[in-house]
Every structure is written in C-alpha cells, then in structure tokens.
Amino acid sequence: MSNCSDNPHEVEAAKKKNVTRIRVGPAGWAYTDWSGYAYPAKRPKGFHEATYLAEFFDTIEINTSFYNPIRAEHAKGWIERVAANQNFMFTAKMWRRFTHDPNPSAEDETLVRAGFHVLRDAGKLGAVLLQFPFSFHRTRETMSYLEAVLTRFGDYPLAVEVRHATWNVPEVFDLLRERGTGFCNIDQPMIGRSLEPSAESTGPVGYVRLHGRRYDTWFSDDETVPSFERYNYLYSEEELRPWAERAERIARAARDVYVIANNHYQAKGVVNALQLIGMLTESKVKVPEPLRMQYPELEKIASERPREPKLF
To answer: Label partner for 77 (CA 20 to 30 A): which of 50, 139, 274, 311?
Structure first.
C-alpha cells in the first residue's frame, strides 16, 4: 500500500520535513582566501567566521580536528558562536592519528575525546568522520583495523570515508550497518580505482562529501603546484543536481544527512553548498554579500536584493 498522499499540502509538508534533515555546509571556516569572498574584506569588531556562516548554513565540518585534537575550551566557544541557529550541528573529522597512523595510543584517545565530548554533550555533534586515505585499500588487516576503530569510538555518531574501489563490496556495507555507522558518499576525480559516486545509507547518519574534480592536481606530487589547487574547483549546476538527488535518496533511509562541500579555494564550496540548498528546498537562499559580488551566478538564487548597487 502506498503511503503517498494526494493532498498537495501534505505532500509539500512531507518534502519540507525531509529536507530539514539534510544539512548542507562547507568544510572548515579558517581560510585567508575567503576574505572578500565568503567574508567581508573589512570585518566588523567581534566578527567570527563560524557565527557568520551559521547565518547561512545549518552545518560546518570541523577540519582542524584532522590535524590536532579539538581542545575542550575551543569546542565550548564554537558552540556559543553558533547558538543563534538552533538547527545548527557540527560534524568533525577524526584526528589523523587514528586514520593514517597504525599505532594510536590510549593517550591519543583521551586527547581526541576531550573536544568531541563537549560537542556531543551539548547536542551539537552530528557526526565524527573517519577519513581514510586512497592508499587505505581493503585487506584482511585493514578490515580488522576498521572494525577496531568503530568499536573504539562507537559511542559517537560515526561516518566512514574510504576512497579506493576495493571497499565497494557488500561485506563492508554489512559491517557498517551492523555497527550503525554511516557511509560517506564522495565525489572525487575518477582516477584509477577511485570509488565512484554513490547514494549509500548504512546508519542513522548519512554523509556526502564533494572534493571537486581537479584531475590534474588530485594526485600531483609537483612541488610547484600549490596545495590549494587540489580543491580549486567550482561545480556546475548540472554536476550538482545528481548530488542533490542522491542526498534526497540517502535521507529516505537515514535520520540526518550532512552534505559537505570540500572544494574550499576562494569559497567555491560555499557557492556550491548554497546552490545545493536551493535545489533541495526549491527556494531562494540567503547569500553572503561579498560572495554574490564574486560569483554573479548566485544572483538567481539569492533571496535578498544586493545591498550595494552594481555599476555596469
């Protein structure tokens, strides 16, 4: 028997209810090249990036936690910074000591839990992302290691990102479902045995990350190429629309879905995140004023008129 209603108001209400569980936002906020793009070139007194972004997004992925554990006092401060947006949830990368180093210690675990505990206890930790590198192929040893990490941090809402196609097997998805762990669906340059785009949902948390499609720099070891060039990519609307559809499919099975735009150079991820929100809500969105000046394509989805008149 179908659960669909013929009442258009009920259908629209159901659609809106579904969309509220899909939070879209950027990866990180501390980028110097976002000045004059996502952020005002001249920042007012008391300006904080997370507070500002929370006016436009319901989530941000904390990426500094990949390099060092979050300090408890920093986590408390960030929670206060976004308090005006009651729908806001952070996601955070796991410290790379647990995804890129085979021998993390008990002390490492204590350090990494300090900040996560603060976010979780405040009800602001949407997911902890275990981001493994492309070199992390599926073997008997890596499967055992993944199981151990899922057990070690099973008290957090987890999502797993793997990038190599060897992980695209039923055994892996069965493990994640058994543990109630989300699978991170990714968009990345399709080079060699890279994992293809997907819409898998294996736990209460659904996760999507968009890395861009810079085939020429993704695996480059050319020291003359700046590191930011890996993420210097602006998705077209045609490239984004299938991901909006995938996010909606994931949301049918997951409790909460996080879609993170990681193509951060010159706030291109912010642009694409806003475009995705517009596609998912089928409505216009609030756009940061500096960003609409840099990316005129945002005009057609902006919900407010420009504050500064344009000169033609």
So the answer is: 274
